[in-house]
Specification:
alpha/beta; 9 helices; 7 strands; binds nicotinamide-adenine-dinucleotide
Length: about 290
């Protein structure tokens, strides 16, 4: 068998249509660019309309591949249905859904990593000070923000009897990180849902997988990892480097090889997996 030709054919993504939620963000705009580089028509779906339009414009200029910015919230089914209508008019039914919108918030973050258990401990700084509204917001954005767009867009894939869904998970999904209980729980739920839906769709021709990135410096985690006065890494930021055997942060481009593998026929018998791209973080016990 000529493996070179085989792989070239199976990488053929030209003219497929991909919706990337959170597509104006740091990670997902790069994922979108990598798809466009393979000839995929990209839909940059984001709650930030101006940023989505700008990313789409840059993609068209850079790759000469059609791209549109569409404004919708992954938590609002009505806005997603409206986006789907626009997408159908411009590009027709979609082939690839990347569920990338997500993030954390200070409102769902405890001040301290561990309770001391002392009499005079300030409970507001611990688990007991977490705001339910903040918890709901982060949990919903990351979990329901994956579930709802999948409900809206996966009908295209099921009707075509082919297509791929990629969820963006996190290191928190395997073992929770301190302070961020809502984000950790939501990403664990994303992994579980990835497996559940992969089985549910297994006879439809639609595959469902996830990528669990290691640590990148982006807008949603900067408040935890960089001291805004000095610009240096916080103690938590340094701990991440110490916990990453490759001893550095990931850059978004390093996620794109796994994305292309998962959206192409190179992985046509792969469904229900969550692939860590993490410089060894999830393999390392710290000792
Ligand atoms: P980012 O803040 O740069 O991008 C997130 C994007 O999502 C933004 O453009 C934002 O406008 C958009 N968004 C927010 N709420 C939305 C909503 N309701 N509807 C539609 N769009 C919405 O963040 P990022 O770091 O690039 O994160 C992208 C994904 O990667 C997230 O799911 C995040 O949890 C995950 N992730 C990030 C890291 C990291 O270290 N940064 C690590 C692992 C996983």
């Amino acid at each position: 068998m000529d493996f070179n030709t085989l792989y070239m054919n199976e990488l053929n993504l030209k003219d497929k249509v991909a919706v990337i939620t959170g597509g104006a963000g740091i990670i997902c705009s790069t994922l979108a660019r990598s798809l466009a580089a393979h000839g995929v028509k990209t839909v940059i779906l984001d709650v930030n309309k101006d940023a989505a339009t700008e990313v789409a414009k840059q993609i068209e200029n850079e790759f000469n591949t059609p791209s549109i910015g569409v404004s919708a919230s992954v938590l609002d089914k009505v806005s997603l249905e409206a986006a789907k209508k626009i997408i159908h008019e411009k590009f027709g039914p979609i082939d690839i859904l990347v569920n990338g919108a997500g993030g954390n918030s200070p409102a769902a973050t405890t001040k301290v990593e561990k309770m001391e258990g002392t009499e005079d401990e300030n409970l507001e700084e611990t688990f007991f000070g977490l705001q339910i509204e903040g918890f709901d917001k982060v949990f919903d954005l990351n979990f329901k923000g994956t579930l709802i767009p999948t409900m809206v867009f996966a009908t295209d894939l099921v009707k075509k009897k082919s297509g791929v869904i990629i969820n963006i998970s996190s290191m928190n999904s395997y073992r929770p990180l301190t302070k961020i209980a809502a984000y950790s729980a939501a990403k664990a739920a994303v992994n579980n849902f990835t497996q559940w839906l992969a089985v549910h769709f297994s006879k439809t021709g639609v595959r469902v997988n996830a990528i669990a990135p290691g640590f990148l410096l982006t807008n949603q985690n900067r408040f935890l990892l960089i001291d805004d006065k000095t610009g240096d890494l916080t103690p938590r930021g340094k701990k991440i480097i110490n916990g990453t055997p490759m001893e550095r942060y990931c850059v978004p481009e390093e996620l794109t090889g796994t994305l292309i593998y998962l959206v192409s026929d190179l992985s046509k018998f792969v469904t229900g997996v969550v692939i860590p791209v993490d410089g060894g973080f999830s393999a390392y016990s710290g000792v």
